[in-house]
Fold each of these.
Amino acid sequence: MGLYGVMTTSVSGMSVQSDRMGTVADNIANVDTTGYKTASTEFATLVAEGRVLEYVPGSVSTIARRGVSEQGDMTYTKSPTDLAVSGNGFFMVQSSAGTPYLTRAGSFVPNSEGELVNAAGFKLLGYSLLGGDLSSIINSPAGLEVVGSANLGMKAVPSTTGAFQVNLPAGAAVTATADLPGANAATSEYAGKTSLVTYDNLGNEVVLDIYSAKTAANTWQVAVYDHSKASASGGFPYTGGALTTSTLTFDGTTGQLASTSPSSLSVTVPNGAALTLNLTNTTQLAGDYTPQKATANGNAPAAVDRLEISKGGIVTAIYADGSRVDAYKIPLANVASPDNLTAISGNVFATSKSSGDLQLGTANTGSLGQVVSGALEKSTVDLASELTEMVEAQRSYTANSKVFQTGAQLLDVLVNLVR
Amino acid sequence: MALTLSVDTARSSLSATAEQISVVSRNIARVGDPDATRKTGRLVSGPGAGVSVAGIDRSYNPLLLNSYLNSNSNYQSQTAITTALDQIQSTVDETDLERSPAALIAKLNSALQSYSATPQNPAVAATVVSAAKDLATALNSASATVTNVRRQADSDIAASVDNINNLLSQFKDLNNQVVKGASQGGDITDVLDSRDAVLKQLSSEVGIRTVTRDNGDMAIYTDSGVTLFDKSPRQVAFQQTQDLSGGATGGAVYADGVPIAGTDHVMAISSGKLAGLVQVRDEIAPSYQSQLDEIARGLIETFAETDQSATPTLPPAAGLFTYAGGPGVLGGRFQPAPGRIPGPSWRASGPPGGLDSENGPGQGRRGSL
């Protein structure tokens, strides 16, 4: 029995070494695969219970391991949608069948529908921020959507805040009440005019004409008109009157706005939102009418030009006109035992009973790490150690085969005894 | 993994150096372009273990550019004035040269002196008439030149306004590219160069002041504070006047609905070609025209014929020099006399007339000298 035992033991030894060769082959094949995690083999003895006086050889079995939790080196690329995780987290992706998986392979590119798809065809999942920021992250894949620019569409932002800072010429002549810009008469006079582009609710450009005229010493009237309502000559009188008029008073000694003077100008953009123009730093000093700053936020309708991803996993849509809107938050997932995740084709992992349940969190929190844009996580395979392991496996396999050969020869000798 | 890491690091160094070389070659390629700035690649360590070009910087001094824009505007306005003055100068000439009004008046004077010595000599009388004709022709042609200078200035204003509108629309494209590039973190140095080039051209036409805002967005105002560009170009408008003879006023230039030059300007620009041209059209040429008018009026009045009766009943009438509004003589010392000239007429509010010396002694309707 002992000799047969030797043969089966050595066969199991050869078998585990071929398993080991398999992992080495797999590792070497995937040495350049983004997000690949090194597979390794661990061996365990199988002891055949026997009488104490007699040794019955057991055998050996393989336990395949994957170093999923090992951080790979980063390789940097020029694509902002190439993502890597620097930390323990995983991206949530979805197969074409809709099953959620975890992955570290973040070579995402927009597909024909604008969805971010990685090299193996898995779509990146994230929480939409378009309905406002999320108060908390739910610990389940529910609520996740495919990240893409398709459902962002065209977008217009109405103007709501702005600034209007000018120097009003202190030496300007006082304008008669009937000829003030606010009177909206053909004879209206003014010391200065600045026009400002704002946007209504639909993203139409609305040009506001802002007139300033001196009403008395240190006192100015500011009147705002809708440029589209101007007379044929482009000036007074405007149909429909002023959108707003305001009286500013200045400190005669410093030339700055007096503390009693309004420091902002509220005007409702026609067909748009209420716009508040900050007047701080408007001065009344000697010199010409000088606009220092005249701005308003908002933008005309624009399509999404590209997506940008921050370290916190916020996907920002950049529109053709340069405006930015936070569109998605990419969560990072983790499990209690990442090394026990089940590897699935395409560099993705599925949760298993031994890995523990899925936990979703925000990048930069806990040990999840941060999202690095313009980088890819390289394979964790170290070629040098794989090649040495291959030599070791070969040696062990050969030695096992020698044991088998010797066992077989001994059996030969035994059988030949009866001749 | 250390082996692959070192390969990566070496690769990043190669790619950073390659990018720097491309920046240098761009610099060399544009060595002759006055609008190009020197670009340098900014090296930073990382990301990761390697090195990379974090961005491209350009050697650029905003104060210097502003100072250039101001000087260029002033230079261009003075150039426009100088060009017009050169043309006008040809009518005045050196006072001792033959064609100047002063010399021609002196010639008439000496001819009259000869004639007073020998009033019976028809040949000498003819010399007086011919001298008077020369003077009238010179004054008329000077007046025509002035009108021509004004007409030229007016059409140059129209061309300048077209050019401003055109430059502003070019500026819009470039500004949009800058804003987009800056918000995306791309290399916008070349676009910034082109945008500055447009600004330089714009400063030739009109004095400007710029305000830079978020993402490199720029707003342009005239030196008087009128908006020319803020996200979109503002309309600069000008109506050319076809007939500028007789001191007719030309149209005003409007920017964003505000008259910035010409009649009834509110926020007047002070520099740039446009300012110079408007000054030529509305101040320099008319003031010279009124001086010519005054010479003509003086001549008509001096040579006016008065009723020699003991009790004069007839009003004075134009004599040797007459004009289209003749034969009456306009009174008043400084009332500008109506000029002659079919076509262009004097700046005065008087009726368009003609200064004429066709009627020599003995041939005139109203008698002779």
Amino acid sequence: MAGAGLVTTVATPAAASTDHLPNNDQFGMLYDATKCVGCKACMAACKRVNARPGGLAFEQARFDEDGLWDAPEDLDGNTRTLIKLYKDAKGWSYVKYSCMHCQKPSCVSVCPVSAMTKDPKTGIVDYSKDTCIGCRYCQVACPFNIPKFQWDRTIPQIVKCDLCRNTNLKEKGKPACAETCPAGAILFGRREDLLAEARSRLKQYPKRYVAHIYGEHEMGGTNHLYLAAMPFERLGLPTLKSEAPASFSERIQHTIYKGFIAPVALYASLCCIALRNLKKTVPRPEAELERTQPKEI
Amino acid sequence: MMGLPLGMHGRVAAAAQSSARPPVIWLHFQECTGCSESLLRSSHPSVSSLILDLISLDYHETLMAGAGAQAEQSLHESMARNRGKYLLVVEGAIPKGQNGIFCKVGGKTAVDLLQEVAPGAAAVLCIGTCSSFGGIQSVGVNPTGAVGVRELVTDKPIVNIPGCPPSPYNFLSTVLYYLTFKRLPELDALGRPKFAYGRKIHEHCERRPHFDAGRFAQAYGDAGHAQGYCLYKLGCKGPATYANCSVQRFNDAGVWPVSIGHPCIGCTEPEILFKLPIAEKVQIHDPTPFDSYAPANLKEKGKGPDPLTTGVVGLAAGAVIGAGIMMAKKLPDSIPTQKAEPHRHEPTK
């Protein structure tokens, strides 16, 4: 795939985040919950591939005395992707959790030190452990509850999917989960192609799916897209507006600080007030006394 | 079976039918002939078709028609005629202790025989765990100083086909691979062909779903054992043993130890066979997900604080702030120090 070449060439953080419109050339994944068989091969592959560079470890469950299984209950400091199950009287569905790689990611917007970055070309939302100061704003900001903190480590990191940017994507042109999936439930590719594929599936099998591509518009669009047979809310994917919160907050911030006019004006006026008050008290006899004192000591 | 794409079968068949049969010399040392017995039970190709059509088996102590001087002559003639071309198959470990007196064939020690035959071989195939890694006689105090071929022969390509006994098809496939491509298959770190020893038994075990779901036989003959549950807790070494037994099976009847209720003893692994007790559990180093799913529902938010609690806390906070203000008012206007004095009358606005 061309992915490997593209990834290696671009490494600059999202500088042009203002010209935000869905950039459909970026990489993404399409997860089709109706195709998923719940085998968890993606989970195993993710951990196998990212164990060392990603600092992922196995999650031992309480009931598991012999350490036989990797049993994460949710995304956590050791788990970047996870298959969950929704079940009620009417039906059931698997659902895969991993980073949505938003077009306008909140985690990147809130990060005070730019440890979270969005690659403008590949669209990968990545994390730099060397820059991170551990404030965990990204955790609070993410509407999908994706970034996880390694609470149990002395030198913790934020853990989230980076589309295997430094591992499988580099080596084989595909993230490990998409490469491994035996059911074809995880497609990796350009967002445009994935959207076209999702639309054609909706058209071809209208009865199988809920007529909605989750991630097409949510949060200003995400690069990880979902198709499912039941309302996405039930699968733990929240109903979100199409405007990214990050766009909204950045608009406010960027308006206030545009050209740095408002802060300069504010401090200039404060300065004027201070100076005016200062003039009234300048001829002070005590002041001269103070100036001479140090010499005597 | 050989890890080749389906399209290659024509080439393999052509190689198998060609008249150029590579000469094979088969040496037996410290062994039980179980590996040869295993080979005799193969059916596709059968051992007769192997030794009559595929290879020219010039010397094999169990299978050759000749005996004594006649057999020795066949060995030496083949070695001289096919120098650098014959395949040497070794079955059994080689005792090095006390000048190798523990195993002699035709008056020569195993070490001498190997040193005599190996230099002229194109490659050495070690069939069974004994010739591959030393086997049972090399375990513990190792009174005979038994070693595998790789300890003695270092200048020849060696393929280890361990197992106790190995599946005959792993051996036959290696030979066929050699016939087809005129080179040896890809090997792992222990010299085993990857097409047969590339994955763990555990990965393709028919009892694997029971493992994933935590259903184990706890004792031989218990209800779980009768139900065909996973044998891990009886000491199955499948999660640490690289071999294709769970796929290839044995005796052309689809059976293998685990299918009849006995845990794998790890016979293809030099560090497991006869070194770990059969009943001992192995540590699993790369765990796989447990067979259950976390519920996907959005987590319900907590109820939040009670209005009464909020009120009480608010009142308390207000009281504290009020008390603070009152206290601040009662503070003396200035602290009588030299520096604070001149600033006292400074206008605040």
